[in-house]
């Protein structure tokens, strides 16, 4: 059978590595990295994400700074808060939880975050740095996806990789990271012709489509690595909600060499990589590190 990639276990390893680094930074330099998370409004899913981010930040020994603002917060108030956080030396990472209320220009807010504190990696400066191969803060979900692929194939060099989806949050940065790993990268999307045969050529498939079980088992080349970024809630036959990915797991797991499940695959990696980015941001800002 295929190897089921255990995202929960790999994420726990990443967090343990970060806890070690934070402890070393603390004992060597007497400082602790800090992550500020800003939540505007009452979106229930966002509240859960923010709570989990805060808890895991504290768990690895870093400072968590939470700003919970009402849904009526004005754009100017939010921009002023970002400005304050940009200037605060105790804050090494700034994350503004999306989605923002409609009266706020999310792009303007994200572009106001100092790129060196932009732990989501969405700022155009970080996007550009990633593509030209400079040290950058890279979006968390694609970073986690690469770590999972490398957990089963440490050397991705020369592989044919197909990324399905071209969003700025997942698909495009994923393609950039796989290019950096020396894959031959194809980005497939909603206008791609004969997508099934494009995917069939891939040694490594990354699905970030947002359509439940979009990628079918007979699209997968035997032995390929399949990384499923999708998180979709659908109604099961029993009428209860359940989570499925963008890949038909039952079919694809019969063909793939290794595959991530949903849940328990890419999902847990995202926050772990956020913590990793916060440590990275601290090191870039202070010039201090766990090793020296
Ligand atoms: P998105 O909607 O922004 O982008 C989807 C992409 O899929 C688009 O680029 C589009 O071109 C492509 N697409 C749409 N229909 C298609 C079709 N019929 N054929 C081929 N391509 C098609 O979504 P996103 O933000 O990139 O997220 C993708 C999925 O990943 C979602 O299920 C989302 O819930 C999940 N996600 C998971 C995490 C995580 O932490 N694991 C993080 C972000 C997103």
From TrEMBL:
Name of the coding gene: folD
Substrates-to-products reaction catalysed: (6R)-5,10-methenyltetrahydrofolate + H2O = (6R)-10-formyltetrahydrofolate + H(+); (6R)-5,10-methylene-5,6,7,8-tetrahydrofolate + NADP(+) = (6R)-5,10-methenyltetrahydrofolate + NADPH
Name this protein carries in UniProt: Bifunctional protein FolD
Pfam families (alphabetical): THF_DHG_CYH, THF_DHG_CYH_C
Organism: Filomicrobium insigne
Domain Tetrahydrofolate dehydrogenase/cyclohydrolase NAD(P)-binding, first and last residues per copy: 139-285
CDD domains noted in UniProt: NAD_bind_m-THF_DH_Cyclohyd (cd01080)
Entry's EC annotation: 1.5.1.5, 3.5.4.9
Family recorded in the similarity comment: Belongs to the tetrahydrofolate dehydrogenase/cyclohydrolase family.
Tetrahydrofolate dehydrogenase/cyclohydrolase catalytic domain ranges (all copies): 5-120
Residues annotated to bind NADP(+): 165-167, 231
Biological pathway: One-carbon metabolism; tetrahydrofolate interconversion
Alphabetic keyword roster: Amino-acid biosynthesis, Histidine biosynthesis, Hydrolase, Methionine biosynthesis, Multifunctional enzyme, NADP, One-carbon metabolism, Oxidoreductase, Purine biosynthesis
Record's function text: Catalyzes the oxidation of 5,10-methylenetetrahydrofolate to 5,10-methenyltetrahydrofolate and then the hydrolysis of 5,10-methenyltetrahydrofolate to 10-formyltetrahydrofolate.
Subunit structure: Homodimer.
């Amino acid at each position: 059978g295929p190897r089921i990639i255990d995202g929960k276990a790999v994420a726990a390893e990443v967090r343990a590595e970060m806890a070690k680094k934070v402890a070393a930074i603390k004992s060597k330099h007497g400082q602790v990295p800090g992550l500020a998370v800003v939540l505007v409004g009452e979106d229930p899913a966002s509240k859960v994400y923010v709570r989990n981010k805060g808890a895991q930040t504290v768990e690895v020994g870093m400072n968590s700074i939470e700003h919970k603002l009402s849904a009526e917060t004005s754009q100017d108030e939010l921009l002023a808060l970002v400005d304050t956080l940009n200037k605060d030396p105790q804050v090494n990472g700034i994350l503004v939880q999306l989605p923002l209320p409609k009266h706020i220009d999310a792009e303007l807010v994200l572009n106001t975050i100092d790129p060196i504190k932009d732990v989501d990696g969405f700022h155009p400066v970080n996007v550009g740095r990633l593509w030209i191969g400079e040290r950058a803060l890279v979006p968390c979900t694609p970073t986690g996806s690469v770590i999972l692929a490398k957990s089963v194939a440490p050397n991705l060099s020369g592989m044919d990789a197909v990324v399905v989806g071209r969003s700025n949050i997942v698909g495009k940065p994923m393609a950039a990271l796989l290019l950096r790993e020396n894959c031959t990268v194809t980005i497939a999307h909603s206008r791609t012709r004969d997508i099934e045969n494009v995917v069939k050529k891939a040694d490594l498939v990354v699905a970030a489509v947002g359509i439940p079980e979009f990628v079918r088992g007979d699209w997968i080349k035997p032995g390929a690595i399949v990384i499923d970024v999708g998180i979709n809630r659908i109604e099961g036959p029993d009428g209860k909600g359940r989570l499925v990915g963008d890949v038909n797991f039952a079919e694809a797991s019969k063909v793939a060499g290794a595959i991530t499940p949903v849940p328990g695959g890419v999902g847990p990696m995202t926050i772990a990589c956020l913590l990793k980015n916060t440590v990275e941001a601290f090191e870039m800002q202070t010039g201090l590190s766990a090793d020296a």
